[in-house]
Amino acid sequence: MNSKSATSVIHFDAFPKYPTQNKLSARQVIKKDMRQFGYPARILFPKPPTHLTGLTLDEVLVKAEKQAELARDTVGRKLRKDGLILLRGYVTYPTPIKKLTQTDPNFRPWVKLTHSFLRKQFNKQFVSSFAALDEDFYTIRFYVLPTLDDQNHLDITSIHPALRARQLVSNISKAKKEEAYNVAMRQFQENYYQEVSRKIGCHRPEVE
Asked: Three-state SS for 53?
C-alpha cells in the first residue's frame, strides 16, 4: 500500500422504516447489502456479504422494524413513516481488492482498529458488521441501532453525531444547521483518520 496516495474512506447515513423520495427504507438498504434478488446493488457479479461481528442482517432488520413499531413520539403518536430507524455506514480498505493479499501487513490491524473505533463511537448500539467482497475495494459495512428509552422514544440523534449537531443549533437558519451537520461529519472522519487510518499509513482524506 502506497501511504502517500492511499485513503481509507468512512461514511454513514440514516434510513427510515418506509422509503421516501430521497431515501431507501431500512429494509431496502439491508436487502440490498445482502445482495438479495429484487434489490439491485449495481454490482456486476454480486456475492453475499461475509459476517464479521454481531447480529445477522436479518436480525438487524427485525430489531429495527420492531423498535419502529413500538416507538412513540412525545404525545404518544406512532413514529412517522419517514422517521429514521437505522444507521448504516461503510469503511473501505485502500488497496484494490484484486491486489489485496493475505501478506498485507496492514489489513488485519485495519479491521481490528476499525471495529475498535466503531465500538468506541457507538458503544452497544453498534450491532453488526459485514464485509462486502464483490466491490472494487474491501468494504466493511456497519449497522447501528438507536435504543428505545423507557417511554418508547426512538432518537436517531443519539447515534448520528451530525444530526445531533444540527439539532442543537438554535439558529433557525438552514445554512447554519447544514454547516453544523457538515462540521460534525468532518470531525467524525478526522477521528477515524487519527484512530485508524494514520496508524496504518494512510493519508488524510480530502473532505468538502
From this structure: strand
